[in-house]
Amino acid sequence: MKRTTYLSALIFVFAFFLSANLFAQKRDIYELKTYHITSPAQEAMLDSYLEKAFIPAAHRLGIAKVGVFKPVSSQADAGQKVYVFIPFKSLDALAAFEEKLLKDQKYLTDGVAYVNAAFDNPPYKRIETSILQAMTGQPKFTESTLTGPKKDRIYELRSYEGPTERLYKQKVKMFNSGEMDIFTRLGFNAIFYAETIAGANMPNLVYLTTHENMEKRDANWKAFGADYKWVEMRDMEEYKNTVSKNDTRLLYPTDYSDF
Description:
The chain is an alpha+beta fold. It has one domain: Alpha-Beta Plaits (2-Layer Sandwich). It is built from 8 helices and 8 strands; from the N terminus they run αβαββαααββαββααβ. The chain has helices at residues 2-25, 40-60, 91-101, 105-110, 112-115, 165-185, 214-226, 228-234; strands spanning 29-36, 67-71, 81-88, 126-134, 154-161, 192-198, 204-211, 245-253. An 8-stranded antiparallel β-barrel has the order 1-3-2-8-5-7-6-4. The longest helix has 24 residues, at 2-25. It starts with a helix and ends in a 6-residue tail after the last strand.
C-alpha cells in the first residue's frame, strides 16, 4: 500500500513538472536585432532589403509579424540604428529560421543587393542581437491598438538592468505580479514584455510600449508615476533596489513595419 502511494506521488510530481515545462514552452521567443549604420546609403539599402525581401520571406515562413523601428529625431543615435523585432513560437523555430531563409529562392532574388553586398559597400556596420523570452504575465506578443499615423507614434523600448540575478528576478516578479496590469489600465499598449536569455547587459528585462505621440507618452508616464497601485508596489521592501540601470529608446515604426 505504501509503495503504491509512493509511486502515485512520484507520478503526480512528474506530471506537474511536465505540465509546467510544457506551459513554459508556450512563451514566445523574440529576436531583437539592432543594425548599426553609418550613412543614408546604408539605411536605404537596409530599408529596401527589409521591406522587399526579409519581411515577405518571414511571412512565407510563418512569422506573422515583424517590427522595424528607428530612433526619433531627438535621440542621439537618430540615423544610426535600425531595430528589427521578430517573434518566434520556440527556440527551435528561431534556430531553424536562417537555414530556411537561405533556401528561399525568392528571398535570395529579392534581397540580392543585401545578400551579395560587396565587402567595401556593406549595408550596415555591425549587427547586435538579443534573444528574449516572453514573461509569464504576457506570454505572447500583442498588436498595438493605435490607429493614428505611424509617423507620429512613439514606440518606447526599455531595458531594466538588475544589479544581481536575484534582484533582477524580483523585478521580473514585480512585472508579472501587477506592474503589467498598471501599464494596461493606463493605455501603454505594450507589444511585449520579455527576459533576456542571451545578449548584452544581462541580467535585464526588455519591454516595448506604444503611444499615439510624444505628448501622450509623457502624459502616460505622469499618470503611471502617480498611480496608487504603482506607489504601493514601489514601496514594497521586496521590490526595492531591483533596477541598477534604465535604458530608454524612443522609436518610431517604419511605414512597412507590421507593428
